Amino acid sequence: MNGDVVFDHVDFGYTEDRTVLHDIEIFARPGQKVAFVGATGAGKTTITNLLNRFYDIQDGKIRYDGISINKIQKADLRHSLGIVLQDTHLFTGMVMDNIRYGKLNATEEVIKAAKLANAHDFIMKLPNGYQTVLKSSGGSLSQGQRQLLAIARVAVADPPVLILDEATSSIDTRTEKIVQDGSLYEHNSKNQIIGR
Predict the structure, then answer these.
(1) pLDDT tens digits, the chain, 196 residues: what are they?
(2) Separation CA 92–CA 95 (nearest Å)
(3) Helix (H, G, I), strand (E, B), or coil: what is residue 42?
(4) Counting CB atoms within 10 angstroms of each CB, which of 26, 114, 121, 168 has the fewest?
(5) Beta bridge mates, 94
(6) 94-99: which pairs have CB atoms within 8 A and are 24 or more residues apart?
(7) Which 3 state secondary structure label does DSSP give 8?
(8) How far apart are CA 10 and CA 26, in angstroms?
(9) What is the pTM of this model?
């Protein structure tokens, strides 16, 4: 997959009698950054959920690399999308394994991804660095640190499409700028950023 995404006159409603998105037209080409900005409840997260096929649209087409997403198996579609949400989920285990979860056989790519996400420095200050065991969904880390680990995880996976949905909301503005200006976005020329 190259990551060419098109929403073509898409209508969607959570119930059939109430349309919440009407005649949506969006295109995002490989390597392009696209930002959705709007008030709470405007439909930004809904648009990303539609791309993931968490819901089916009522009318129009969503195409990924020219193929209707209805014709792509959900597992294949979702495997090609990297998603970082505001609420980050980590599992009990080493920092290394939490990042490697994006690509289970990754080794040296883990440190490279952590540097891309600006997480390497704080990881090295943990008691055992990358071997530090996280418990209770990373409860000993700040929300911002958990978000940086999630960004590193998706950088390891190296998907054609990267979706950031409030993924830097708990990161200070200086670190957010480093992440946004950093080579994470240029890590793979196929990546595109869809977020807000």
Answers:
(1) 788 999 999 999 998 888 899 999 999 998 888 888 888 888 888 998 999 999 999 999 999 999 999 999 999 998 888 888 777 888 899 999 999 987 888 888 999 999 988 899 999 999 999 999 998 777 788 888 888 898 899 889 888 888 887 755 656 666 666 556 554 544 444 545 454 4
(2) 9
(3) coil
(4) 121
(5) 133
(6) 94/130, 94/131, 94/132, 94/133, 94/134, 95/123, 95/126, 95/129, 95/130, 95/131, 95/132, 95/134, 95/149, 96/130, 96/131, 98/134, 98/138, 98/149, 98/153, 99/130, 99/149, 99/152, 99/153, 99/156
(7) strand
(8) 9
(9) 0.77
Amino acid at residue number 45: T
Length of the chain as a residue count:
196
Type of residue numbered 156: V
